[in-house]
Write a structure and sequence with these properties.
ABC transporter involved in vitamin B12 uptake, BtuC, 2 strands, globular
């Protein structure tokens, strides 16, 4: 049981990075990325292939993130000036095309299957191996969270929200909406690529069947449940959904169900997202206002004037 819990912590951390990347794109900038798994796959296969030729793990992770960012730019750039539904369709299609290419071309091995060397050498203890990964993934998650928070609470974050709320108004104020969207999409894709590399080295094996569209929709559920445009809420959503997923997998060992537990899990995920959208559309933790020095100064001045008047 302790190993099962530690395994949950590791996977929750990886998917929390994925959820943060989607939150930057959708929560703050309003970009509907329905192909998040494509950049997750890119990071995983980049790490796997580079690690096989002896490149240090940190370079494998960085290069995987950079390649995912470039893919994100190349895929999104032609559609960013169009309606958002075009972006959603293009990225979703790209994810499936990329997965089929990896499988058909046998990239990395038979039908795209790759054995991956872990970052930490096996010491004969599964407990130590998981604790080492918790430390590494926790550090990466902390970095991604700090970056997301700094972006959200900066003038750049105000522009992201402005583009999300009213693109025409933002452009009228001199903000190039396509440029900002492209930048956010690249940053989000890079985070997803980092998560993919961490996932590959932890699992120590990857194949195209591990990168189905359901991965994308699971990350969407994490963001919508936790609270779009709230990074703390996204972390909460990632933890809850991963806990729900692990619980469903454990249930099949103790309960006799009339349907396959995996199918039941998808049904419950669908019902959960409907309930959230109907009764808690802002998520468990609603969006917070922008925290910048200018706004704090304005609030301080307003309160000072109010107190002076009384």
């Amino acid at each position: 049981m302790p190993l099962y819990f530690l395994d949950f912590v590791v996977l929750a951390g990886i998917f929390a990075i994925l959820a943060l990347s989607l939150n930057l794109e959708f929560g703050f900038a309003g970009l509907a990325n329905f192909g998040k798994v494509a950049f997750f796959l890119t990071g995983a296969y980049t790490y796997a292939l580079l690690s096989q030729i002896g490149i240090p793990f940190y370079l494998c992770l960085i290069i995987g993130a950079l390649i995912a960012a470039v893919f994100g730019l190349l895929v999104a750039l032609p559609t960013l000036r169009l309606r958002l539904d075009y972006l959603a369709i293009v990225v979703l299609t790209f994810g499936e095309i990329l997965r089929m290419i990896v499988k058909a071309e046998n990239i990395g091995g038979f039908r795209g299957m790759v054995d991956v060397s872990p970052i930490f050498p096996w010491m004969g203890s599964p407990l130590i191996y998981r604790l080492e990964n918790i430390g590494l993934i926790g550090l990466c998650l902390l970095i991604c969270f700090v970056v997301a928070q700094l972006m959200a609470n900066s003038p750049y974050g105000r522009v992201m929200r402005a583009v999300r709320e009213d693109e025409m108004a933002a452009e009228a104020l001199g903000k190039d909406r396509a440029k900002y969207k492209a930048q956010i999409f690249m940053i989000g894709s890079a985070m997803a690529g980092l998560a993919g590399g961490l996932y590959a080295q932890y699992i120590q094996f990857i194949s195209p069947g591990m990168f189905l569209p359901m991965v994308t929709f699971t990350v969407w559920i994490m963001v919508l449940l936790g609270g779009p445009a709230n990074n703390w809420g996204v972390l909460l959503g990632a933890g809850l959904i991963e806990l729900f997923d692990r619980g469903a997998n454990m249930a099949k060992d103790y309960l006799t169900l009339p349907i396959d537990p995996s199918n039941l899990q998808y049904i419950l995920f669908g019902a959960l997202i409907i309930l959230v959208l109907l009764y808690r559309p802002q998520g468990l933790l609603k969006e917070r206002g922008v925290k910048t020095k200018a706004l704090e100064a304005a609030r301080y001045a307003r309160n000072a004037i109010k107190n002076k008047g009384t």
